[in-house]
Amino acid sequence: MTTTATQRGPAVYDPFDPAFQADPYPAYRRLRDEDPVHRHEVPGAPPFLVVSRFADVWDVVRDPATFSSAQGLTFYPDEIERLGLAPTIVMMDPPRQTELRALIAKGFTPRRVLDLEPRVRRFVHTRVGELGDARADGRVPDLHRDLSQHVPTWVLAELLGVPESDRTRFGPWVAALVQLQDDGFDVGRLQGADAVAEMFEYFGDLIARRRTESRDDLISALVHAEQDGATLSDWDILGFCFVMVAGGTDTTANLISSAVPLLDEHPGQRQLLLDEPCALGTAVPEMLRLESSVQGLARTATRDTEIAGVPVAEGEKVLLLYGAANRDEREFGPTAAELDVRRTHPRHLGFASGPHFCIGNHLARLMTRVTLEELLSAYPRISADVAAGQRLHSAFTRGWVSLPAVLDGR
């Protein structure tokens, strides 16, 4: 039986509780209303602050001088030391982060992404058709395993110039990096540590080759990027590849999968998209607002300060709950918890904001829009069997491991 009704989850914030992860929104609302700067404790880590109202999160994420990314993005205190690698661009502050971002933007342009659309559409069209093949073979099509998770891995490989023969290696890399993030970047606990090492070795070799054998791909563009005499080192490019694979694959896959249950819950909005497919342009950020793939990331206070009148000590971790802020009635009005595919967004936090605004947001939007266009064209009444699905177990991201689909909506 297909389940479309939103669950009523616990009203207590516990990032590791499976019931909370299945439906965190009652707890988020209680935090926003009663304890918007909440002091929380988890085993194995010092207490940290949890910020849930939109205005407070917005202000913190745009103030890197006071709230730094350079001590990591989780609530674990020794995250970068656990990783055992030099920090990547997402674990830096301005001005160095600004310099790297400007250089990366020279190669990772909106035009380069837009030029991918015909190839993305062909790939997605084939994968969408294979959902029907699975049903014809007597198997239950899985929206996440059979479609969503394949789109960003294929697109990223295409963008980076990874040969077809090597693209099957992306799956284990992505799985290992997602586990690494959810374990607080503790390499010592990582079962897939070999996969992470393999990914670094692979891209290190690819970068070296592109310095002498340039191609029409993103790595070649990054190798030759230059601004005011500055260029990107091999580690700068390798670190960006790490960020793209770790942060740009499962998040986009989860957004694509989460869109179908949202449409199940809002049949009027589904019909609007069927009648006006062009509305998917505004629908994608609205879906991301409601089902933020990244539920929260942390910053570290660089000085004694306060948030909404609550004292914050220098060195204290502050977890910014994007998933809560994006449903804040104070920002989005009384319908904040409802899908409105025509809603405009002067600002929201689905792609963060400030210096760490997602540099790949145009790529994520493209992949999600094209996939939903193809999916709704082929199966207008597709629904998700949420009750039979398996949630991703994570304190920081929200998504799926498996999500069976009913293609005809019955």
Please give the structural blueprint:
Elements: H1 18-22, H2 25-34, E1 37-42, E2 45-51, H3 54-61, E3 67-68, H4 79-83, H5 96-107, H6 110-114, H7 117-136, H8 143-148, H9 150-160, H10 170-182, H11 193-210, H12 218-223, E4 226-227, E5 230-231, H13 234-248, H14 250-265, H15 267-275, H16 280-290, E6 297-301, E7 305-307, E8 310-312, E9 317-320, H17 322-325, H18 329-332, H19 361-378, E10 383-384, E11 390-391, E12 400-402, E13 405-406
Parallel strand pairs: 2-9
Antiparallel strand pairs: 1-2, 3-6, 4-5, 6-9, 7-8, 10-13, 11-12
Helix pairs in contact: 7-9, 7-19, 9-13, 10-11, 11-13, 14-19, 16-19
Task: Describe the 3D structure.
The protein is α+β, with helices and mostly antiparallel strands. Helices cover 48% and strands 10% of the residues. The chain is built from 19 helices and 13 strands. It has a five-stranded mixed beta sheet, covered by helices on one side. A two-stranded antiparallel sheet has the order 4-5. The protein has a two-stranded antiparallel ribbon with strand order 7-8. Strand 1 (37-42) and strand 2 form a beta hairpin. Helix 7 runs antiparallel to helix 9, helix 9 (150-160) runs antiparallel to helix 13 (234-248) and helix 11 packs across helix 13. The protein is globular, with a radius of gyration of 21 Å. The model is unreliable at 1-7 (pLDDT under 50).
